[in-house]
Amino acid sequence: MDNITIGNKLWLEKNGQFFLGKGRVELLKAIVICGSISAAAKSMKMSYKKAWAAVDDMNSISDSPLVIRTTGGRGGGGTSITEAGKEAIELYEHFESNASAFLDDELKIVQQ
Question: Does residue 30 surpass a pLDDT of 70?
C-alpha cells in the first residue's frame, strides 16, 4: 500500500444547489486580483459567459451578493468581491483544508 494518496473533491451546496467548489473559489480569487470578471475569466482560460454564469449563480444562491459590478464613472467600471464573497472563500478553504488533513491522517492510520 505504499505510494497511495487520497484525492478529494469538495463542494458546498445551499438548499440543494451547487454553491461553491474549487473552480468557483479560484474565479472569486481571480476577480480580486484582476478587478473584472472578463479579465478573471481570461486569466483562467474560461469563457466570459461561463464565468458570468458562475458569478450569477453564486450571487443568486447566496443570502447576499458575493460579487458586485460597477459601471462607468471616472475610473471606469469594474468588479469586486464583497465581504460575503471573502467569507465564502474563507469558508470553502477552511473546509477544504480540514477535509484534506482528515484524509491524510486516515491514510497514515491505514498504512501503519
Answer: yes
What pTM did the predictor assign?
Answer: 0.85
DSSP 26: H
Joined grid coordinates for residue 89: 472563500
Q: Assess contact for 48 and 5: CB atoms under 8 A.
A: no
Place of cell 480540514: 98
Three-state DSSP class for residue 37: helix
Secondary structure (DSSP) of 54-109: HHHHHHHHSSS-SEEEE--STT--EEEE-HHHHHHHHHHHHHHHHHHHHHHHHHHH
Residue pair 93/81 in contact (Cβ under 8 Å)? The answer is: no
